[in-house]
From TrEMBL:
Location of the Pyridine nucleotide-disulphide oxidoreductase dimerisation domain: 340-448
UniProt-annotated binding residues for NAD(+): 176-183, 264, 305
GO MF term list: flavin adenine dinucleotide binding; glutathione-disulfide reductase (NADPH) activity; NADP binding
Cofactor, how bound (note): Binds 1 FAD per subunit.
Name of this protein: Glutathione reductase
Needed cofactors: FAD
EC number: 1.8.1.7
Binding residues for FAD: 53
């Protein structure tokens, strides 16, 4: 325990990265405090991955119930109630908020439910006015939705508000074609809303393998999602009848009951006082750090979305853990950013790890691509025409599998295991040598010839 400072470590932001860092540092013997201006758990738990996944589960029942008839089930009087789903999800968020708070307490991390700002290299001020000193400060405040500027933006919502909608919108316009846009397009489409996705470019899910993106576009269009490409929103006007008129350039305006903006997230560094410690922000407002998460100020570190490296929860957690081991555990560690698996919980979901076909061709030139384009058994039985698509990208010279890309039911669950093989540098021959697990969708991974 330090004599000179109030704490060995003061963490700003009790999200995934901040909570992990504080409890590990405390385990290494540091005296730790954490400040959080909203709720303990951060974006992932409070207004991101977790409640989103629950909405995906909730909305997916529409498909399951429809298919149930093919399996002999009669479901009478089928109805959906948004308020029940919303409130159950929000109750689960309350439970997790309490669980995360309990984690801090059981790890002897003092927590302040107040905003903290940096006043110097070793000092912070809480919103209530209390001044605190710390040997090390960790900034883990995450990111915040970007709101493009257009007249009527005040009538729109972001992923922060979407979990609290007072009622299910009959018609929703979603701006953007990234993770959040396509996940919520899937949720609202499954729940029976009219969904229009408008995007400034003609591409969805930039960064994912092109074949999968094409497949998702085809399937979601067939499911009734309307896309308007090269058409960013120009204005949103509230009509006398309460509906929203969304103008999107040359195309006809769209009438909607809600407009969700999902155009990326930027580091939440505004008003944090970083300049008081001599830290200059990067072009996107991010905090520049070295491989050990250290900023230009030697006593201040940053992890997670606020550094704008990879905006994914498991990455922030790893960064927070590595920081705590490095600074308080006498075990300097950096995070390995190669082969990070990721998924989009669209309907159907898609997932990928390693290089896409395009990236592999640029990097290696000579690549072999294996695909399996199949109709999952459960779709065949239920009369669904939707097909899954699995793809292996292989270095033709070494036979090493450089990337695995999947779209279809349960793709994220299947990909996590395949990611181990890619991370381990296994070859296509290793995949081929593995006996298929039959009948499953995952067996396609070892049957591609
Ligand atoms: P994304 O970066 O995924 O997508 C942003 C979308 O908005 C793109 O279609 C982009 O178009 C468009 N866009 C960007 N800026 C503007 C602008 N100024 N005006 C109009 N359109 C614009 O962001 P999201 O908000 O969907 O998600 C934020 C981050 O959160 C993700 O990057 C991801 O890291 C994380 N996340 C992860 C999830 C998961 O792991 N399943 C789920 C949800 C979020 P263009 O392609 O033309 O640039």
């Amino acid at each position: 325990m330090t004599d000179t400072y109030d704490y060995d470590l003061f963490v700003i932001g009790a999200g995934s990265g901040g909570v992990r860092a504080s409890r590990i540092a405390s385990g290494h013997g540091a005296k730790v405090a954490i400040a959080e201006e909203y709720r303990v758990g951060g974006t992932c738990v409070i207004r991101g991955c977790v409640p989103k996944k629950l909405l995906v589960y909730g909305s997916h029942f529409a498909e399951e119930l429809q298919d149930a008839a093919h399996y002999g089930w009669t479901v009478e009087g089928m109805r959906f109630d948004w308020n029940t789903l919303r409130d159950t999800v929000l109750r689960d968020v309350d439970r997790l908020n309490a669980a995360y708070t309990q984690t801090l307490e059981s790890n002897r991390v003092e927590h302040f439910l107040e905003r903290a700002t940096i006043t110097g290299p070793n000092s912070v001020r809480l919103a209530g006015g209390r001044e605190i000193t710390a040997k090390v400060i960790l900034v883990a405040v995450g990111a915040w939705p970007v709101k493009p500027e257009f007249p009527g933006m005040e009538h729109c919502i972001t992923s922060n508000e979407v979990f609290h909608l007072p009622e299910l919108p009959r018609r929703i316009v979603i701006q953007g074609a990234g993770y959040i846009a396509l996940e919520f397009a899937g949720i609202f489409n499954a729940l029976g809303c009219e969904v229009t996705v408008v995007n400034r470019s003609d591409q969805i899910l930039r960064g994912y393998d092109e074949s999968l993106r094409d497949r998702l576009l085809q399937i979601t269009m067939a499911r009734g999602i309307v896309y308007r490409f090269n058409c960013p929103i120009q204005s949103v006007e509230k009509q006398a009848n309460g509906s929203l008129k969304v103008s999107i350039g040359k195309a006809d305006p769209i009438e909607a009951d809600a407009v969700l903006i999902a155009t990326g997230r930027k580091p939440k560094t505004e008003g944090l006082g970083l300049e008081n410690a001599g830290i200059t922000l990067g072009a996107k407002g991010e905090i520049p750090v070295d491989a050990y998460n250290r900023t230009a100020c030697p006593s201040i570190y940053a992890v997670g979305d606020v550094t704008d490296r990879v905006q994914l929860t498991p990455v922030a957690i790893r960064e927070g853990h590595a920081f705590a081991d490095t600074v308080f555990g006498n075990n300097p560690r950096t995070v390995d950013y190669t082969c990070i698996p990721s998924a989009v919980f669209s309907q159907p979901p898609l997932a990928g790890v390693g290089l896409t076909e395009g990236q592999a061709r640029n990097a290696y030139g000579n690549v072999k691509v294996y695909t399996s384009d199949f109709r999952p058994m459960k779709n065949v039985f239920a009369g669904r025409m939707e097909r899954g698509l699995y793809k292996l990208v292989v270095d033709a010279n070494t036979d090493r599998v450089l990337g695995v890309h999947l779209i279809g039911p349960e793709a994220p669950e299947i990909l996590q295991a395949a990611a181990i093989a890619v991370k381990a540098g296994l070859t296509k021959a290793d995949f081929d040598a593995t006996v298929a697990l039959h009948p499953s969708m995952a067996e396609e991974l070892v049957l591609m010839r």
